[in-house]
TrEMBL record:
This is Multidrug resistance-associated protein 4. Pfam families: ABC_membrane, ABC_tran. GO terms for biological process: lipid transport. It catalyses: tauroursodeoxycholate(in) + glutathione(in) + ATP + H2O = tauroursodeoxycholate(out) + glutathione(out) + ADP + phosphate + H(+); dehydroepiandrosterone 3-sulfate(in) + ATP + H2O = dehydroepiandrosterone 3-sulfate(out) + ADP + phosphate + H(+); leukotriene C4(in) + ATP + H2O = leukotriene C4(out) + ADP + phosphate + H(+); an S-substituted glutathione(in) + ATP + H2O = an S-substituted glutathione(out) + ADP + phosphate + H(+). Residues 71-335, 706-941 form the ABC transmembrane type-1 domain. It is found in: Apical cell membrane; Basolateral cell membrane. It is an enzyme of class 7 (translocase).
Length: 1241
């Protein structure tokens, strides 16, 4: 059935396989169909359970969906076992013919030919049946897994906010990477749960018939082993559930580390994070170690069982006064051999996997039962669309029982204020469940989030978001959102690929793409959550006039903003404070009512208020037909993309897996001495095989019992030692990979999507932890056994080597031929898994946007496409393995046939014992041989995981954290920063983003840095922190920064970053991961940033554990936490990177005030979009295209009408310009009145 793969092998042997070489997924295996079918059964089960008032059982749904076809496969596996039992009987009859050999008896000879035919036919039957059985069970396992993944992703898309708090990205990634794999493992062995006991009974009957009651002694041993192994199985299950929880938390931490790597590096926090991960990993490994010890005992007991059983059986047989004959021994040994695999290996394995699977199913079920978001009906008649509106009365909502707001809104509504506006939008979107009151939305919503979200793909696919491309409309939107110029600068225009989390775009560009996406949709109501905060004043004005009051002027818009200069354009203004509406009305009404918000507004009579007409008919409905945006993103990036870090193709090694890799792997777990010890312990296996021969010839039981005992003890010792070594290897490789990841430059994370990195930490490490050690140990034991078997057989009859040698050569050649292709398929299987994880993590980040746009179905389809790509490679791997097994088994069957008939043709002069030995060895050796070859191939394929992990342990690393040269302990005491001809680019072949820059920032000076998006403002910070090594020299207080260690440098500067990052953990850990400060220090810092009251309201105050990435704080509050970190560190140099972009003017003033008071003695560099935040700086640095355009005091620059700063200020409107000039003047007079400090420098 698998001959169609043969052409693939010839390709695989000529060159490396690519994704295009894989075959299309079979319609039966497509992710969507499978997932929907299982989902149907699950929904039905949930309904039934609700009726019967019980918990729904996922197992029931799976059984209903896949039970019947899987049960039918039991017949195959039953047939296989029957044949295995019949074969030894034929063999015994054949040997009996030689025992009673009589040259003249022709009837006996014909009968013997019949038995020989029986032996060879049963071998052929085994070949065919086994291949069919494995192919079908593995495919069933694959189907269940694919369907589960579909359901898990589907569920993730509709989790409610409360449920998101109860799960984490790490957990979902772990469900998709490790838990679902149990289905692949359990299906292979499940049938043995009923076959093994049945087979045991049949064998006992046959044995009784052969050697009488003494067979019971051997059976007793078997019966003793079965419950013991069942107990092991249960233990495995409980260990598995403990391990899974630890793995979840490790992957969650990893996810945060990778997402927040820039911050971690700038704060020099690598050490506490690596301690955190190592601690979790240590606990995880200790659980894995216990289960490996159990595994070792389990496998050793399997190898030892056969020895003990045969020994005991014949010891009893002889003691009962019988004489041993060759045919008896061989039949007994073969029958025990047939049952040995099923009863002592497959049966316990089945139990172990069943228990593990139950745990995994339970975890998946708990996830599938989390709360979903309630989606209101969104189909509207044209009438309703005409007067689209949002109506709110006495609305009370809780995130966690906090009152939020009340009021009625339509038209262009501006909401100046702090936390609750985002919550108001969440309520309108339906993300925030409302407790009381009325919330009616008439019309289709669209939404631009506060923290811009982009998904991996082209810029165009991000803006279209599944809509068709209408060129004129698209151009209009690009122009309105000020993206036209950016598109011209990018190498591929709007077809430029955006990396993971938009790594290739600047903050302002992301915000504008995010806005353009909302504008491009034909919706009735636009919810805009502060889209103007991340852009500079000029662009902000353009967006407001061209876009919000331009393209959208006839639609109701709800705009949350902190930029008060835009309020006059609003038809209605709501002022929210702590969840209540404090005031509402038009601009003029509010001015006259004298609410405190007017104190925030400069009275502005010069500009006449603009009026907007409110409603307009929306011509066409929101159509949900999605064009797959994937085709566009699949086109490769053209050359010459030198502007941006483009997402690199995932690296995939080629060729053989060399001995050096095996050495690296083993050496990670043990020293050379331990390895030698293992080899020595293995030697007894070689002469193990010799004793089976002695039993027949030597009648002394004492020698036999000595040999048996020794081999059992050595077996256990070796097994345990090897598992120990391999688990240690997994641990040390994980730690080395993690450390090397922390030490690699930031650029690595811009090029590699997060899914790719997590894939190595979840899936590949998972392989190293569980599957690889089993295969490795199994393989090493088999190899030794085979050598022993051949040695014994050759000692009895040297001519057996004649067929063995060519056979071995054929086997090895086949193995090489097979591995060329299958290794590539396995590597493809690993790389095609990454997009599945990347897609999941980017979807979880943009969940609100995806739902607001009703794009769930399209994202689900994309997920299915990725899943199908992975299935293609997985299915190919399954088929290639079957192809290989069939070829091996076929050769074996031929060999057995030749041997059986050969013995009959050469019947003169052969003694029965020799024939028996040769025949039974021909059968077992071949079974063993091909199993060994198969395991070695399997092992080599698993070693690709080791290869991928080792690859990440050897990443290029940034400069050392500490060097021989330490700066003086008090450094920097003044905070003088000098840039001397500094050029900077993010990678050796990347574009230069700072060009030959010379500047000096004086001690205690406050410098504002402005410039258009992409002028190099953030690059200046990167150069200062050495996120990549700059050319030229940067001095801080006369110390050359490139000569000292990175930690020495980074710990001495504080940064308040553009995207505030909080980590899961307690509030205390977020402020002070090193435990360097007292409680009092921490509370004081919080007090200074006015967060003390917020933290005091938390249930456990400082010890409250934050939700994943701090999502239970608003963006503004997270920014304040970052400010508190800077306050705590008391450094001389503070860098503020657009930190106040997301906060309202009050908080902004507060931050500015804190900066003036707390950081009076520090040198402060502020990168800003809002000029009012930096107009009172001592000097302003204007950047353009990586060069300094001007650098002087603000008042001086504003006097000069040619200056860039002057032009920018004029664009803000007359009133704003006047007030800015006033502030600048103020600063100027203040400085003049003070004694001249500047002369000191």
């Amino acid at each position: 059935p698998v001959n169609w793969v043969t052409p693939l092998f010839s390709i695989g042997n000529k060159r490396r396989l690519e994704e295009d070489d894989m075959y299309q997924v079979l319609p039966d295996d497509a992710s969507q169909g499978l997932g929907e079918e299982l989902q149907r059964h699950w929904d039905k089960e949930v309904r039934m359970a609700a009726k019967e008032l019980r918990m729904p059982k996922l197992t029931k749904a799976i059984v209903r969906c896949y039970g019947k076809p899987y049960a039918v496969l039991g017949i195959f596996s039953f047939a296989v076992e029957v044949v295995k039992v019949i074969q030894p009987v034929f063999l015994g009859k054949l040997i009996q013919y030689f025992e009673k050999y009589d040259p003249n008896n022709m009837d006996a000879l014909y009968e013997a030919f019949g038995y020989a035919a029986g032996v060879s036919l049963s071998t052929v039957a085994l070949t065919v049946l086994q291949s069919l059985y494995f192919y079908h069970v593995l495919r069933t396992g694959m189907k269940i897994r694919v369907a589960m993944c579909h359901m898990i992703y589907k569920k993730a898309l509709c989790l409610s906010s409360a449920a998101m708090g109860r799960t984490t990205t790490g957990q979902i990634v772990n469900l998709l990477s490790n838990d679902v794999n149990r289905f692949d493992e359990v299906t292979t062995n499940l049938h043995y749960l009923w076959i093994a006991p049945l087979q045991a009974v049949v064998v006992i009957i046959l044995l009784w018939y052969e050697i009488g009651p003494s067979c019971l002694a051997g059976v007793a041993v078997l019966l003793f082993l079965m419950p013991l192994q069942t107990m092991f199985g249960k233990l495995f299950g409980s260990l598995r559930s403990k391990t899974a929880v630890l793995t979840d938390s490790r992957i969650r931490t990893m996810n945060e580390v990778v997402s927040g790597i820039r911050i971690i590096k700038m704060y020099a926090w690598e050490k506490p994070f690596s301690a955190l991960v190592n601690e979790v990993r240590r606990k995880e490994i200790s659980k894995i170690m216990s289960s490996s010890v159990l595994r070792g005992l389990n496998m050793a007991s399997f190898f030892a069982a056969s020895k003990i059983i045969v020994f005991i059986t014949f010891a009893v047989y002889v003691l009962l006064g019988n004489t041993i004959s060759a045919s008896r021994v061989f039949v007994a040994v073969s029958l025990y051999g047939a049952i040995k695999l099923t009863v002592t290996l497959f049966f316990p394995l089945a139990i172990e996997k069943v228990f593990e699977t139950i745990i995994s199913i339970r975890r998946i079920k708990n996830f599938l039962l989390l709360d979903e978001i309630e989606r209101p009906n969104m189909r509207f008649t044209l009438e309703e669309k005409k007067d689209a509106s949002v109506e709110i009365k006495d609305l009370i909502c809780y995130w966690d029982k906090v009152n939020i707001l009340a009021g009625h809104i339509s038209q262009l509504t501006c909401l100046p204020s702090h936390l609750p506006q985002s919550s108001l939008l969440s309520a309108i979107l339906g993300e925030l469940p409302h407790d009381k009151g009325v919330l009616r939305v008439k019309g289709q919503l669209t939404y631009a989030s506060q923290q811009p979200w982009v998904f991996p793909g082209t810029i165009r696919s991000n803006i279209l978001f599944g809509k068709e491309l209408h060129p004129q409309k698209y151009e209009k939107v690009l122009r309105a959102c000020a993206l036209k110029r950016d598109m011209e600068l990018l190498p591929d225009g709007d077809l430029t690929l955006i990396g993971d989390r938009g790594a290739t775009l600047s903050g302002g560009q992301k915000a504008r793409v995010n806005l353009a996406r909302a504008v491009y949709q034909d919706a009735d109501i636009y919810l805009l959550d502060d889209p103007l905060s991340a852009v500079d004043a000029e662009v902000g004005r353009h967006l407001f006039e061209q876009c919000i009051c331009g393209i959208l002027k006839n639609k109701p818009r709800i705009l949350v903003t902190h930029q008060l200069q835009y309020l006059q354009a609003a038809n209605q203004i709501l002022v929210l404070k702590e969840g209540h509406v404090v005031a509402r009305g038009t601009y003029s009404e509010l001015q006259h009512s004298g609410v405190d918000f007017t104190s925030l507004l400069k009275r502005d009579e010069e500009e006449e208020p603009q009026t907007n007409n409110n409603h307009s008919v929306v011509k066409h409905a929101f159509s949900q037909n999605s064009i797959s945006s994937h085709t566009s993103s699949m086109h490769s990036v053209k050359d010459g993309a030198d502007q941006l870090p483009v997402v690199a193709e995932e690296s995939r090694s080629e060729g053989n897996i060399g001995a050096s890799l095996y050495f690296k792997y083993l050496n990670a777990g043990a020293s050379i001495l331990v390895m030698l010890g293992t080899v020595l312990l293995s030697c007894p296996l070689l002469w193990d095989e010799a004793w089976e021969n002695r039993v027949m010839t030597d009648k002394s039981p004492s020698l036999c019992s000595g040999l048996t005992l020794a081999s059992v003890i050595f077996g256990f010792a070796r097994s345990l030692l090897m598992f120990n070594v391999l688990v240690k290897a997994a641990q040390s490789l994980h730690n080395r990979m993690f450390i090397s990841l922390l030490r690699t430059p930031v650029r690595f994370f811009d090029i590699n999507p997060i899914g790719r990195i997590l894939n190595r930490f979840s899936k590949d490490i998972g392989q190293l932890d569980s599957m690889l050690p089993i295969t490795f140990v199994d393989f090493s034991q088999l190899i030794l056994q085979n050598i022993g078997v051949v040695a014994v057989a050759a000692a009895v009859m040297p001519w057996i080597l004649i067929p063995v040698v060519p056979l071995l050569i054929i086997f090895l050649f086949l193995r090489r031929y097979f591995l060329q292709t299958s290794r590539d398929v396995k590597r493809l299987e690993s790389t095609t898994r990454s997009p599945v994880f990347s897609h999941l993590s980017s979807s979880l980040q943009g969940l609100w946007t995806i739902r607001a746009f009703r794009a769930e179905e399209r994202f689900q389809n994309t997920f299915d496409t990725y899943q199908d790509l992975h299935t293609e490679s997985w299915f190919l791997f399954l088929v290639t393995s079957r192809w290989f097994a069939l070829r091996l088994d076929g050769i074996c069957a031929a060999f057995v046939t030749v041997t059986a008939f050969g013995c009959l043709f050469l019947r003169d002069g052969l003694e029965a014992g020799a024939v028996g030995l040769v025949l039974s060895y021909a059968v077992t050796l071949l079974g063993n041989f091909q199993w060994t070859i198969r395991q070695s191939a399997e092992m080599e394929n698993m070693m690709t995981s080791v290869e991928r992990v080792v690859e990440y342990t050897e990443l290029e690393s940034e400069a050392p954290w500490e060097t021989q040269k330490h700066p003086p302990p008090e450094w920097p005491s003044q905070g003088l920063i000098t840039f001397d001809r500094v050029s900077f680019s993010y990678s050796s072949d990347g574009p230069v983003v700072l060009k030959d820059m010379k500047a000096m920032f004086r001690p205690k000076e406050k410098v504002g840095i402005v410039g258009r998006t992409g002028a190099g403002k953030s690059s200046l910070v990167s150069a200062l922190f050495r996120l990549a090594e700059p050319e030229g020299r940067i001095y801080i207080d006369g110390v050359l920064t490139s000569e000292i260690g990175l930690h020495d440098l980074r710990q001495k500067m504080s940064i308040i970053p553009q995207d505030p990052v909080l980590f899961t953990g307690t509030m205390r850990k977020n402020l002070d991961p090193f435990h360097q400060y007292t409680d009092e220090d921490l509370w004081n810092a919080l007090q200074e940033v006015q967060l003390k009251s917020v933290v005091e309201e938390l249930p456990n105050k400082m010890e409250t554990v934050l939700a994943e990435s701090g999502s239970n704080f608003s963006v503004g509050q997270r920014q304040l936490v970052c400010l508190a970190r800077a306050v705590l560190r008391k450094n001389r140099i503070i860098i503020i990177d657009e930190a106040t972009a997301n906060v309202d003017p009050r908080t902004d003033e507060l931050i500015q005030k804190t900066i003036r008071d707390k950081f009076r003695e520090c040198t402060v560099l502020t990168i800003a979009h809002r000029l009012n935040t930096i107009i009172d700086s001592d000097r302003i640095l204007v950047l353009g295209a990586g060069m300094i355009q001007e650098f002087d005091e603000p008042y001086v620059l504003l006097q000069n009408q040619e200056s860039a700063l002057y032009r920018t200020v004029q664009q803000m409107g007359k009133a704003e310009a006047a007030s800015l000039l006033e502030s600048a003047k103020q600063v100027n007079t203040d400085t003049a009145s003070q004694p001249n400090l500047m002369s000191l420098v």
